[in-house]
Amino acid sequence: NAGVTQTPKFQVLKTGQSMTLQCAQDMNHNSMYWYRQDPGMGLRLIYYSASEGTTDKGEVPNGYNVSRLNKREFSLRLESAAPSQTSVYFCASSRDRGSPLHFGNGTRLTVT
Amino acid sequence: GESVGLHLPTLSVQEGDNSIINCAYSNSASDYFIWYKQESGKGPQFIIDIRSNMDKRQGQRVTVLLNKTVKHLSLQIAATQPGDSAVYFCAENTSSNTGKLIFGQGTTLQVKP
Questions:
Q1: Are strands A10-13 and A107-111 parallel, antiparallel or unpaired?
Q2: For a FRET experiment, which of A32, A96, B10, B58 has its CA 20 to 30 Å from that of A26?
Q3: Cis link prior to A100 (omega < 30° from 0)?
């Protein structure tokens, strides 16, 4: 039982490049989330998926897209990376709305 | 606007002492609160949660207190150990329909041996 698994763990991109961050959970959770964490800013919600087949914007969605591929997987895509997207990205899942979130160990992304 | 904040960015305590980490929230409609612990290089780890119909909840060595009158949340850690050194975040559920959490900026707990 791995919980929430994120890949890759580290990534360096040049401005304008694209990439997809992968996330999978094996807890049969319904809801999944993408957060970014910046120094002094805490965690900010980018996008979330309350259930399979639905996605919604969070606090800071600009520059990102998401796909809830199935119940297990929720990916985050940067179409044209910018230095402002340098951050640590965390995926999380929860059994349902109002349940604790379980986090992965993050993807550390640097955009130069 | 909605915000969740912590009163102190860093808290330093002696091993064996009790620790109290505070958090203020601004949305009186929030109905669910969670404390997370984050160690260096890892994702946030769930510690304890509390719903708005309660004012206290206890776990193993941890207690969360909720004061809705002043919109204040605290985490008490008994007999603090070196392994408790981490950043602690409070989080607030602003909408029970979505489960979205708003996080505070975090308090770093340093435990001195």
A1: parallel
A2: B58
A3: no
Query: Shortest Cα distance from B92 to chain A (angstroms)?
Result: 10
| CA atoms of B74 and B57, how far apart (whole Å) | 11
Residue B2: pLDDT over 70: no
Domains of chain B, with CATH numbers?
4-112 (2.60.40.10)
Q: What is the model's pLDDT at position B96? A: 59
- Chain A, nearest residue to B34 by Cα: A100
Query: Residue B43 gets which letter from DSSP?
Result: -
Return the closest-CA partner of residue B106 out of A40, A25, A9, A7.
A40
* pLDDT tens per residue across span A19-77: 999 999 999 999 999 999 998 778 999 999 999 999 999 989 999 999 999 999 999 99
